[in-house]
Design goal:
alpha/beta; Dihydrofolate Reductase, subunit A; 24% helix; 29% strand; binds NADP nicotinamide-adenine-dinucleotide phosphate
Length: 253
């Protein structure tokens, strides 16, 4: 049978469709969908994260999209936590003054919107919410915008008027129980918030976008509270994807 070519838009619609469905728990996920009159068949090996068989022409763009998003939308975890951070080559996510727009390029910004679109909930830290005033929606891609939570352990938002559709959570110990009715929770930064999630071993996966700029100082991506010995640190297995002039590292934690 001859293979068919699909656009990135169709591949993305397929990913959204898989995300919305309750797929079986088997290791081999069989995807048979008709999208815009294209009959698409994929057998996806969940354990080894690879497409075993498909009737598609998988060029680099389509293949990367599937390789990045199928492990997330096909996850059989009841609730999964994913984080993304874009950092300079020297490990900073913003200047000291809090300027971060934009460290990464347009391909990565679109990727961030895709992460929002496959998530039920998005979490950002209080500094990010106050300094960036992010919209946290999916305006660049097809898909629904997630429910917004702000992580605010110092209760700085108490003195501010927060729109009623935005939820505020103060205690990291309550995050898992409060959000366990959702399938995918996406933590979009900043560094202090992601570091707290790392410390509590809550994250399942982290996307780190390495951007070819050097800030020479600023807000760090990750913060360790205590002294750590290099020998005690775990080396993560990473997949790499080119995103314009940036590189995305996909770490399964
Ligand atoms: N490049 C990217 O991908 C990206 C993504 C999102 C945001 N940003 C940038 O990141 C910056 C904000 O990040 P951020 O790391 O400063 O903050 P953040 O993660 O946005 O906010 C963290 C909040 O938690 C508090 N907090 C953190 N650790 C705490 C602890 N151990 N105990 C008690 N409270 C704690 C912080 O208070 P204190 O600050 O007072 O400690 C702050 O209120 C902004 O400039 C934003 O533009 C970049």
């Amino acid at each position: 049978m001859s293979k068919i070519s699909i656009t990135k838009k169709i591949a993305w619609s397929l990913i959204l469709k898989i995300n919305a469905e309750n797929i079986n728990k088997n290791n081999l996920v069989r995807i048979n969908e008709t999208i815009c009159e294209n009959e698409i068949n994929i057998s996806y090996d969940r354990k080894h994260n690879h497409i075993e068989e498909s009737n598609l022409i998988l060029n680099e763009e389509i293949s990367d999209l599937f390789n990045i998003f199928l492990p997330i939308v096909c996850s059989n975890k009841k609730t999964q936590f994913i984080a993304h951070i874009a950092q300079s080559l020297d490990g900073f996510i913003a200047t000291d003054a809090g300027e971060s727009k934009y460290i990464s390029g347009k391909h990565n910004i679109e990727h961030i919107h895709r992460l929002r679109a496959i998530s039920d909930v998005i979490i950002v830290g209080a500094n990010t919410y106050i300094e960036d005033k992010p919209k946290l929606n999916t305006r660049l891609v097809e898909g629904n915008s997630p429910i917004i939570y702000i992580f605010d352990p110092k209760k700085v938002l108490k003195k501010m008027k927060v729109p009623s559709e935005i939820n505020v959570i103060n205690d990291m110990n309550l995050i898992k129980s409060e959000l366990n009715r959702y399938k995918t929770i996406y933590v979009e930064g900043g560094g202090k918030t992601i570091s707290q999630f790392m410390k509590k071993n809550i994250l399942d996966r982290i996307h780190i976008c390495l951007c070819p700029i050097i800030l020479g100082g600023g807000r760090p991506s990750f913060i360790q509270d205590n002294y750590v010995s290099i020998n005690d640190l775990k080396s993560h297995h990473a997949q790499y994807y080119k995103m314009g002039s940036d590189v995305l590292l996909d770490l399964k934690i």
